[in-house]
Amino acid sequence: MIPLQLSLTNFLSYRKATLDFRGLHTACICGANGAGKSSLLEAITWAIWGESRAATEDDVIHSGADEVHVIFVFEHQQAVYRVLRSRRRGGGATLEFQVETPTGYRALTERGMRSTQQLISEHLKLDYDTFINSAYLRQGRADEFMLRKPTERKQILADLLKLSQYEELAEKAKDLSRQFKGQADQIQQDLDRIKIQLQQRDVIAQEQAIVEAQINTLQQAQAADNQELQRLQALQHQRQTWEQQLTWQQQQYQNLRGDIERLQQDLASSQQQQQELENLLSQEAEITAGYAHFQNLQSQEEALAGKFQSHQKAVEQKRKLQEQQTGVINELNLQLRQIQTQLQELDKQEQQNQQILNQTGEVEAALAKLQQARIRLNQLDELQLQVSPLLQRRQQLQNQIDRTHAKLSARLEEISASAYQLQAQQQRQPKLQQAVMEVATQIDQLEKKRVYQQRVQEKGLERRSFMERLQENQRVCEQKIGELQQKIDMLQNPDAICPLCDRPLDEHHWDRVVQKTQNEHQEIQQEFWVIREQLAVCEREIQVLRGEYRQLSQELAPYDNLREQRGELQAQLQATGDVQQRLQQMRAEVEHLERSLATGNYATEVQQELRQLEQELQNLSYDEKNHALARNEVERWRWAEIKQDRIKEAQRRQTQISSRRPELQAQIAEIQSQIEQQQTDSELSRQIAAINQKIAEIDYKESEYNSVRTAVRQARNWEMRYQQLIAAQQQYPQIRQRCQELAGVLEVRSQDVETANLQITNIIKQLEQIPNTFNEIQTIEQQMQWRKLQLEEQLRQMGSLQQQLQHLERLNQEYQIQTSQLTKAKRQYKVYNSLTEAFGKKGIQAYMIENILPQLEAETNSLLARLTGNQLHVQFVTQRAGKSGRTSSKKDVKMIDTLDILIADARGTRAYETYSGGEAFRINFSIRLALARLLAQRAGTALQMLIVDEGFGTQDQEGCDRLIAAINAIANDFACILTVTHMPYFKEAFQARIEVNKTPNGSQLRLSM
Predict the structure, then answer these.
(1) What does DSSP assign to residue 989?
(2) β-pairing, 26-31 with 976-981?
């Protein structure tokens, strides 16, 4: 991927910017911290993969903007592509992928962002994680590859080497192997099931003949029972007709009896009602007199009720007027109390004001002293304004002198410690040389054993492959022996047919077929025993090779440790080369630093300026204590101003009280007059007197009204009896006529009952002459129903047997087809199972990683030697011994696949975390640069750009020079190299610079060549 152009709109710190990469080979992106240098590179990763350092998706949008757009044009495999990605704040996002054609850009965008993103990754053959772990040394994440787990490092290498295609092939082969294995197992199960079913053919044919005979017997018995059933059903139908007539006549008889009983009850009831009416009519004179007395009492009650209502109305009016008069008087009393309270409050305020006015003389004397104190404070404030900048500057100068002293002391301690380490290294040089030679001799011996071990392993693999072929031939022989034994068993049947053409065999042909089959069986049996002997020999050879391999593995266990030890020793030996020269330089620098610290000969200009400031401060003679006393004096007399405000307020309130008192006294006199008038000479009092006179005129007596109401309630019974008398006079003629009608109807119904009883007797005589065949019919029907169920069961069984015979015929044909399919599926399973192992992680993938790691290690150490002056050395270890239990022996130690990175310096092998920031960056830079360079040199790898984002701040000047030299050395291996820094010294080493400046309108770009 070679960048061509990048356009940003509202991305992070950029509002609008465009950067053209054409013509840039090695360039530096420079600018102050926070100017937006890394944002340019984040825009590239966001455009291609939608990934950035932002915590949320909306954080990439420029502050104050609603939408972000990024357009990135790049070249890949001699084609130009363009990616357009945008996002709206709080909304959705869009992604477009295009390729350049002679007529313009043609869209490659898929349906949906996820599909389009997958298409971009497929074109680049590179995902985000792989990119930032190889070609992009991201700010703050340069150690990304080092901090990954060994398995994750191995996966990153696999992705960069495009080993995913082998993993895909392995998965496809595994799926196909699993598919053919399942298909073979399923076919074998089907064949076993079909074979069992085909053995049931003769049994089914015998059952079919038996079922046909049973069906004929049942059909004959069913026809005889059907004729007898028809005769009995005719007799039963005739009897049922007479029984229906008998039932109807009996029902009519019961209905007539019911009518007679109902008529008798109605007649008795009517006669009783007639007697009651006659008794009531005999009391007509007494009821009429009582009813007249009741009407007289009712008239008296109505007259007294009118007086009662008038009296109650007048009493209610009087109560309402009295309530109004009381309310008016209460309101006036309330106003009177409120005004009296206000007058009392005025008296209290007048007393308080007089107390405040008595302090006037004391307050005036205090105000004069306050004015004098403020004049003194203003003078001291003006003097403080002159002194404050001088005090701040004096503190700054003193801090600078202290920092310079601390730096010189720290540098002195650092140089002393380094000199001590160099002297120790110089003394160890002869021992290191001897140790390197001894370790190299041991490694040479072990390498020879490794070659022999590899040959033993190859021999074991060849024997294992031969053994698997023998096992496959053994399974084939066992299958053939089983098939031939099955043929021999079939030929033992007297009615045997030819197993090839399915035709009957005569005696001559039967002997030939049996003899041929037995000969084949004996030949395959002999071949089977030969394979068994070869398998035993092969197994013994593998056991011998396995023991020899274990012994060699045990002897080679120290190999990796020795290689690691050799690297450490070589690094220590290389580090002792220029020790003497560096010691002389350090001693001279130590003498200079000690002399400067002892005489105070440092920061001379700052010390001179500090002495001048001290002289100026003495001339001004400013004292902070006097200033504080002046402030306290002003605060002590400020109460006089507060008291003066209170005196003025008291004078104003006294004037208001003097004018308010006469008004309140006049209001009290007026309200007392209104209360007296309401009680004696008001409109309400006159209305109350008029209502009292009206009540006297009504002359209502409550005792008289209550006695009349009691008499009315007692006489109300005559009203009810009078109404009953009127009703009896109307109903008596009707009741008498109804009694006569009921007696006539009762006589007619009695005659109908006698006639119905005679007809029932005649029908019973007819039924006695016809026999009841119900039980016989039910018995025959049950027999026929049972026989019908048996017949249906036999017919169902017959159909089932016929279907089974047809099914067995189809199964026989299917058996032949699936036998050939089984052989094909087993063969395919073996092929794809072998391909799965070959394409897997322990096959060709592991082989390719093992081949590339020595080259990567050599390239890394070459770069690291140039960056550190042969001080550091790295080693890649792909296998290590696993942890074993206490009871396990050395022979049982299992080797674990890994990708550990061992780092050695002059002091030996140490953990990565113990190295300083500058050393760690050089290690990371060397590994990542070697990895990127190696991938760029490999044929077909699309990694053509390198990005180094910051990290140079941890390097001194010598380290920066070495980094620049390393970048220039690999420049020809990449189409584009971008470095990011804020250091002026580092950016001057590059002719092409992309300068980034932050302005109020966002970050701005400027390209200088």
Answers:
(1) T
(2) parallel
Alpha-carbon distances, residue 628 vs 141, 343, 384, 633, 857 (angstroms): 56, 51, 11, 9, 74
Those residues whose C-beta lies under 8 Å from the C-beta of residue 36, and which sit 6 or more positions away, are 12, 13, 14, 996, 998, 1002, 1003
* Alpha-carbon distances, residue 611 vs 384, 398, 603 (angstroms): 20, 11, 13
Taking the alpha carbons of 757, 762, 764, 767 in that order, is the dihedral positive or negative?
Answer: negative
Residue showing tokens 């309270």: 341
What's the longest Cα–Cα distance across the chain?
A: 164
Amino acid 7: pLDDT: 92
The whole-model pTM stands at 0.38
According to DSSP, residue 844 is labeled I
Report yes or no: 674 and 333 within 8 Å, Cβ to Cβ. Answer: no
Selection from 42, 140, 135, 2 nearest residue 946 by Cα: 135
69 by DSSP, 3-state: which? Answer: strand
Question: What's the Cα-to-Cα distance from 1000 to each of 59, 62, 382, rounded to whole Å?
Answer: 19, 13, 39
Nearest-angstrom CA–CA distance, 65 and 557: 63
Collapsed DSSP state (helix, strand, coil) of residue 819: helix
Q: What is the mean pLDDT of each run of 10 residues along the chain (1009 residues)?
A: 89 89 85 83 89 83 89 88 90 89 89 88 78 66 66 73 76 84 82 78 80 82 81 79 82 83 82 79 79 79 77 80 80 82 81 79 80 80 79 80 79 77 71 80 82 81 83 85 78 64 64 78 80 81 84 83 78 66 77 80 79 79 78 80 81 81 81 77 76 76 77 78 80 80 81 82 80 81 84 80 76 81 84 81 75 80 76 78 53 65 78 72 76 61 69 63 71 80 74 85 83
The structure tokens listed for 207 are 């059952």
Sign of CA dihedral 589, 590, 593, 599: negative
How many residues are listed for the chain in this entry? 1009
Nearest in space to 412 (alpha carbons), one of 594, 596, 603 = 594
What are the φ and ψ backbone dihedral angles of 885, each rounded to 5 degrees?
A: -75, 175
| Torsion, Cα of 980, 981, 985, 986 (10° steps) | -30
150-160 and 164-198 helices, crossing angle to 10° = 100
> What per-residue confidence (pLDDT) applies to 939?
41
Q: Report d(CA 406, CA 411) in Å as an integer.
A: 9
In the chain, what are the helix, strand and coil shares in percent, each to the nearest 5?
75, 10, 15
Angle value at C-alpha 772, between 769 and 777, nearest 5 degrees: 145
**CB of 948 closer than 8 Å to CB of 925:** yes
d(CA 530, CA 454): 31
758: nearest Cα among 283, 256, 399: 256
